[in-house]
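To: structure desk
From: M.T.
Subject: fold request, one chain
Message: Could you run this one when you get a chance? Sequence is below, nothing fancy, just the single chain.
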Amino acid sequence: MRWRKRGTTHFVDTVNANLEQLAKRGDSGPLVSGERLAQGIWFDMDSEQAQQDAKYSIPPDGLISFSLKAARPGRWFTLNIDIGANDLSSVKVFGFAARSQAPKTVIARACLRSFHADGFEDVFFNQHLVAFSENSSHADAIWTEQHPILRQAVNWRTLIFFFDPAEVDWVFDDLRILAA
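Reply: Done. Structure tokens follow.
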């Protein structure tokens, strides 16, 4: 069995530390598209075409709670987490694990977006995230060898969670990035 060198997934520790910093904010307020809530973590929404009211709060025992109600829905509403320009060629599996809940059942999609000289390429995770009224767990992973873009050097990568741009009410009790 061939083992990978120690430290090749150091970016996972950095991203997870950024998520922990978000959880320590302990505040609430309006969501502003592109405004960093913690290093490398922000929401993006279609502010050109939409009339949206979006808010967040940091629960004392969770990561982040957020809601969006749109008088006129935009084309997207996303949570973005920077992964950086990290080389994933030594990583076989990239993924995430989450604990979440919502007042009513709601779904989201996740992808790993790779930015390169010609634009970007999305690799979507196979499963939808589903939040229920009770806390539930979700884990999903991408086998990098099945997606050539993930084994190439790129300018930047971002993990993106896509939510309904018309209305969503979601709580991430925890969220962790995984790589092996």
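Reply (cont.): Residues 1-7 have pLDDT under 50 and may be disordered. Let me know if you need anything else for the meeting.
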